[in-house]
Write a structure and sequence with these properties.
alpha/beta, TIM Barrel, eight-stranded parallel beta barrel, two-stranded antiparallel sheet, globular, disordered C terminus
């Protein structure tokens, strides 16, 4: 197959990326208990950089150590870890690879074991999360301003450390996504109300980052095509947000969808036509292509070389976002380029005991893939035959018998 469309560099005013392979963010959970970077992260991203991707995006890096999505998140508040951050950046930028840090704040989407009283735009609990998440309290105006400043400060440190860009995580039900949703954001001040009010937090985060890092450093965004829940963030609203972010100067747009109340980004309940094309959000991208100038990425579902080539050649997207396959085959881009690639097959991770699988399916699946990342962080190869029972034992050892708490990618 002619892979020229996948190997052609992507050029914009702020970057040149060597090819169209985009390693999407996956939560590594490899930080220390104090949320510092580790040698495991350095080894993992060195492995991916050697595998040929054009752009690597880190998993959730939090802007506040008191607000974590899960144990093991790296947090950047100041320069205390600058030395390790420089080593991490150097590892991920080998072979002319771009390495961007995904900056995030979880809001209320943080397990009980991590946060006793999480914050959110409004005091609206997560649906179906009574056993996993504490009810949040509404942020004060001063706290909103502090979080905005934290995003900018973290981005400036990322730039100083030698990473080549940042990505704002505005999807999957985390804090910015919560602000965008009329279900989760029921504020009546300037940070809520109509879409203009609800997106103000995102706009101010972008402006603060841009102020602190300058015009020549790339800023990307990960945005939901929709939340896929009643009363939530709609596709029409998402399109309007895209247009605004494009207008203010965002450099790269990654499209995903859903949240952990309705996890479309994990690939459940997709249409037959979507499965055939592999990309979960390609139809949305085809519409968005006519609205924005920034390069577009779709993440979710890509497995075969044929589908990747077809997506780029359609003109709907500029890069191919890939997550789980990179956890099983870190050399995927190089293999496609040299003609040795065999389509990665991923399947739901299940123990085979239906009552248990129904209760912990999402956590089991995500933890299994985190174990693959941890193996690479130790210099080992991924193990596609790793037993789900091994993962269950790992979960129980790590979290105890009451570990039924959703962990997020």
């Amino acid at each position: 197959m002619d892979t020229l469309s996948l190997t052609t560099p992507l050029k914009s005013k702020t970057f040149t990326i060597k090819n169209r392979f985009f390693k999407a963010a996956m939560s590594e959970a490899l930080g220390t208990s104090q949320n510092n970077p580790t040698e495991s992260l350095i080894h993992l991203y060195s492995r991916w950089a050697k595998g040929g991707a054009g752009l690597l995006v880190s998993g959730n890096v939090m802007v506040d150590r008191k607000a974590l999505g899960e144990p093991g998140n790296v947090a950047i508040e100041d320069e205390r870890d600058l030395g390790l951050l420089k080593k991490w950046a150097n590892a991920g930028t080998q072979h002319d690879t771009h390495f961007w840090v995904q900056l995030n704040h979880p809001g209320k989407q943080t397990p009980k074991s991590v946060s006793k009283r999480p914050v959110a735009p409004s005091a609206v609990p997560l649906l179906g999360g009574a056993n996993a998440f504490n009810k949040p309290r509404a942020l004060t105006t001063n706290e909103i301003g502090d979080i905005i400043t934290r995003f900018g400060r973290a981005a400036s440190i990322v730039k100083k450390a030698g990473f080549t860009g940042v990505q704002i995580h505005a999807a999957h039900g985390y804090l910015i996504s919560q602000f965008l949703s009329p279900h989760h954001n029921q504020r009546t001040d300037e940070w809520g109300g109509d879409l203009n009010g609800r997106m103000q937090f995102l706009v101010e985060v972008y402006k603060e980052i841009r102020k602190q890092i300058g015009d020549d450093f790339p800023i990307g965004i990960k945005l939901n095509s929709a939340d896929f829940q009643r009363g939530g963030f709609t596709e029409e609203e998402s399109m309007k947000v895209l247009k605004i972010m494009d207008r203010v100067g965002i450099d790269l747009i990654e499209i995903s969808g859903g949240n952990y109340e309705n996890p479309k980004m994990l690939g459940g309940d997709v249409k037959k036509s979507t499965k055939e094309r592999e990309a979960y959000f390609l139809e949305y991208a085809e519409k968005a292509r006519h609205l924005v100038q920034a390069p577009l990425v779709v993440t979710g579902g890509f497995r075969s070389e044929e589908a990747m080539v077809a997506a780029i050649e359609s003109g709907a997207v500029d890069m191919i976002g890939i997550g789980k396959p990179f956890a099983l085959n870190p050399d995927l881009p190089n293999q496609i380029i040299n003609g040795s690639y065999e389509t990665v097959t991923t399947k739901p991770i299940k123990t085979g005991f239906k009552p248990l699988d129904k209760q912990i399916s999402s956590m089991l699946d995500l933890t299994w893939y985190e174990q693959q990342l941890a193996r690479m962080g130790k210099g080992k190869d991924p193990d596609p035959d790793l037993s789900p029972w091994n993962t269950l034992i790992h979960m129980m050892t790590t979290h105890g018998a009451t570990m039924i708490q959703k962990r997020r990618a």
